[in-house]
Amino acid sequence: xxxxxxxxxxxAALFCLGMFGVLIxxxxxxxxxxxxxMLNAANLTFLAFxxxxxxxxxxxxxxxVIAVAAAEASIGLAIVIAVFRSRGSINIEDMRTMKY
Amino acid sequence: MNLPTLTSAxxxxxxxxxxxxxxxxxxxxxxxxxxxxxxxxxxxxxTAITAVIAGVVALKMVFEPAREVFLGFGALDPFSSFLxxxxxxxxxxxxxxxxxxxxxxxxxxxxFYALMLFATAGMSLLAISxxxxxxFVNLEVLSISTYALTSFLRRGTRPSxxxxxxxxxxxxxxxxxxYGAALLYGATGTTHLTGMVLPxxxxxxxxxxxxxxxxxxxxxxxxxxxxxxxxxxxTPDVYEGAPTPVTALMSAGVKAAAFAALVRVFVTxxxxxxxxxxxxxxxxxxxxxxxxxxxxAIPQRNVKRMLAYSxxxxxxxxxxxxxxxFATAPGEAFSLLGSTSLGTTATPxxxxxxxxxxxxxxxxxxxxxxxxxxxxxxxxLERREDEERGTAWDLERFSGLAQRRPxxxxxxxxxxLSLAGIPPTVGFLGKLLIFRSAVDAGLIGLTIIAVLSSAxxxxxxxxxxxxxxxxxxxxxxxxxxxxxMTEFALVVSTVAVVVLGIAPGPVTEWLxxxxxxxxx
Lengths: 100, 520
Fold this sequence. Notes:
Chain A is 78% helix and 0% strand. Chain A is mainly α. Chain A starts with a helix and ends in a 13-residue tail after the last helix. The model of chain A has no long low-confidence stretch (mean pLDDT 91). Chain B has one domain. Chain B is built from 21 helices and two strands.
């Protein structure tokens, strides 16, 4: 059996990967995928702890998170399409209409 | 299989949210039967009436005894009921200002009001959430509705850009919060906030890294939502690009709901943690937020953007109140639950904590009526044609407003004085309550900084008043259209700002009630 800590380290790595992706990548869709990666890292953590404790809460939580992530994806993609229609590009560098 | 038994008493605290969801469904269904040119004037009225009914129900619930509902997943206490009332007020006022705003842009649709109702239902449910996953789902209900509202107007580049920034940073912060919740679940084996306290006290000893990382990530997630510095970068752009009534709802309602969840999480699990941790954390956030918010607002000539920075500064004052919630005397056990039963043995810190909670609630109400009103004035002055050039919200728009529309100018002056915290307005009383409780809690240095930074804020608030009353009307100023619903909202906000500032009588009674967080 794979020890729990392996899952947790994998989840932490995914979370960091997602976080740096959001901060560094310039393509709106890639940034969006990185956010999904972070949510799934949280899911994996929930599941690993649920397996360790023999508790159902973590499993149920993962389902709720999947449902929320799906809702978020639909709105997020709609907004990305709106951005593309209004300026013909989904590069984050181009989004600087509002200045300080 | 044993199903839990839920009685109608379990569903009772959800009543305001249910009312708003039903109202939203009626709006969505009625939209099916309308053609593109049908009159949609009833929609704003229907939304406002729904909000008022939900608000009245919430106000009745303030006097209900505090208890856990839904097997501990929710908590009905005066605190949550009062916050539901505050977000209903924000919704009612924001809706009234949006009717004229949307009609001018030919974008009046039932979906807009339905989304506003869904967002507010999410806020109300967030206030009663007593479990981390419930809290996350409700936070997302309100966030997803506001993402859609932000980019609701599809012409021009601003709304979609603001919507995208809000979406990415909002989803990012939700993911951070969720990961923190997962770590706390791992440390304690439960996601119920009340059930977490005892395991947490053990876990702090056996595995402090896990607990502290989890708590810090949850706090960071909330800091994004309430726009605390250094997690505030999205605020000015999103507030500027969103439709003005949506900005009003975001600055008042979303912020109030996020503060409700933040207070509930940290106050409930506080006894399991060392109270020094939240105290240090929120003091630091308060310091940065107050100072940076006020300093960044000073050079702004764009009034909408200035109000965005001002909303950051106000989050700072609220965080000062939150920090005061965690002040403890040396050796005193932290507890805020059931703060009503303060006996004669209560330490000064315990009294200060109860006062701070009331201060936060009053401040949220005060900020709601003021900010929604101020954004209402901004929304009647702006024109779509100027948006792309970015001059729609320039200070010049306010020049000579007192000669053209004395009523609007008076209302805006009242809101500005209230935001600056000058008597006799409600903003002054809110600041007074928060600062007093912070001093009682021993945060004297921080309170001095708060007073100084709010004094700096007076400069940019009064500049708007100076433009309105002491500048001539500019050449070629565009005609100002009147709209009875917006003006009604302005009248209500102004009356609330002035009357509550002079005689906060009934509200203080509600507040004494609302200072009761769930007791165990």
